[in-house]
Amino acid sequence: MASSSQLFNATAPTAAELATPTPKKRVEPPSKRWLHFHSALQLAIQRVAHKWTYEDFAECFSAVVEGDKDADLTQLHTTISRYMESMISTSCEQLLEKYNARENIDTLHSVVTEARAHKAAGGSDGEGNLGPDVWRENLHPKAAVRARTVPVLEEEVKRLKESLAELENNNRELQLVMQENVRKREEADQKATQLLDTLVEVHAKWDELPLEQIQEWALIMAETMSTSRPP
């Protein structure tokens, strides 16, 4: 059975483990809401870590207590309580740092402080003027959302209408160009048709000519011209 001193040395935390985590340096001082929250959290951790008494410790570690009855295990009980406090505190600080708890609580405190000041001023800017973006108790959330989104949507609709008008104008210009091209193509097709009709007509008339008589006439003319030449 290990002695109380050996057990103390085995379970005693190091100085680094007992050291309270050093918070990061911040430019802005913490808000009162964060200070109250952090103080309450540390107090709750201390109460939880030191809530169990020496009798509870002896009941949990009965074998150790009975094996070393002459030793005073009070220091071991205190050391374990301090270690539990340090471990829980370190874990909580890591969670608070991970989720930016201080920044969020400071922001909440700023919003609440501003809202209280605004309410104390009668819902005005301090000079009795109500701003267009001021929240009121009788203002429905949907109305507040519409007040912000409707102007944005109206600007978007205006932009889309201008884009649509520009596209329609471009389409009309393209339509005119296309119609002009169609007209020119139809004129070209009409001229080509007329030329083909004329060619067909000429070919038909050529077929109607008496080719045998033309050949005889051409032969006679050739003989006449040959006989009329001087020797």
From TrEMBL:
Residues 10-22 have a biased composition (Low complexity). It comes from the Eukaryota. The keyword ATP-binding does not apply. It comes from Jaapia argillacea MUCL 33604. Residues 150-187 form a coiled coil. Keywords: Cell cycle, Cell division, Centromere, Chromosome, Coiled coil, Kinetochore, Mitosis, Nucleus. InterPro entries: PMF1/Nnf1. One of its GO terms (biological process) is cell division. Residues 1-29 are annotated as: Disordered. Its main location: nucleus. One of its GO terms (cellular component) is MIS12/MIND type complex. It is found in: Chromosome, Centromere, Kinetochore; Nucleus. PANTHER family: POLYAMINE-MODULATED FACTOR 1 (PTHR15459). This is Kinetochore-associated protein NNF1. Pfam families: Nnf1.
